[in-house]
Amino acid sequence: MPELGLGEAETAVVRNAWRRHLALFHNAKRFRFRSLLLQYTLYLLAILTTLGSVLFAIAVRILLNKLYLHVIQIVYTHIDRSVLLQYTLYLLAILTTLGSVLFAIAVSILINI
């Protein structure tokens, strides 16, 4: 119905639709980049958290081995070695878990800042 002026309305609608399409396409590209950046940051933090936990466990193990040797020298005659080893392993498990939890909390706090 060009006699009623709908020709101009149709071109305005098509122009408006293309503008919206381009705006949505631009936003999609921008948010895709942000999502990839956040996803790779999450991967990196997961690797760092795991690495920190492993290094902490190794450090605790080394310290407990040194402590174990000193305790063995002091109380070797008063306590059974298997009991001492059992308590040392319990302590190692507790310290490793505590270190992992504290490291994860610290990373979570740093992410939220």
Task: Describe the protein's architecture and organization.
With 113 residues, the protein is mostly helical. It has one domain. The chain contains two helices and no strands. The chain has helices at 6-75, 81-112. Helix 1 (6-75) packs antiparallel against helix 2 (81-112). The radius of gyration is 31 Å and the shape is rod-shaped. 0% of the residues are buried. The mean pLDDT is 78.
Describe what is shown at a glance.
The protein has 113 residues and is mostly helical. It has helices spanning 6-75, 81-112.
Structural class: mainly alpha
The fraction of residues assigned to DSSP E strands is under 5%
Overall geometric form: rod-shaped
Q: Distance N terminus to C terminus?
A: 60 Å
Count of helix runs: 2
Number of domains: 1
E-strand count: 0
Please give the radius of gyration in angstroms: 31 Å
Unreliable stretches: none
Instruction: Describe the oligomeric state of these chains in a short phrase.
Output: single chain
Main sheet summary: none
Q: What's the order of the H and E elements? A: HH
Helix content: over 70%
Q: Output mean pLDDT.
A: 78
Task: Give me some keywords for this one.
113 residues, mainly alpha, 2 helices, 90% helix, rod-shaped
List the helices and strands and how they pair.
Blueprint: H1 6-75, H2 81-112
Helix pairs in contact: 1-2
